[in-house]
Design goal:
This protein is mainly α. It contains 5 helices and 2 strands.
């Protein structure tokens, strides 16, 4: 599964800028709805689109590989 490292990048940016940055601020700056950002941050395996990834990379000044991480799916015993 692809994991979006939104919270980690948000924490790093907050630390660098020595201030608290909220998801509401990210929403305002990127044009991504607060609800979408919350889903990305809190729902494992949330599906998003390349426009959202592009906006987040621009905001955090990062490459997609810094925003996305591949995590092996867990085996489920049914």
């Amino acid at each position: 599964m692809i994991r979006v490292l939104l919270i980690q990048l948000l924490d790093e940016k907050s630390f660098r800028e020595k201030r608290r940055i909220t998801l509401s601020e990210v929403s305002k700056e990127t044009g991504i709805s607060r609800a979408t950002l919350t889903r990305i941050a809190n729902v494992p395996g949330n599906v998003t689109n390349t426009d959202t990834i592009n906006a987040l990379c621009k905001y955090f000044e990062c490459q997609p590989g810094e925003l996305l991480s591949y995590v092996e799916d867990e085996e489920t015993n049914a």
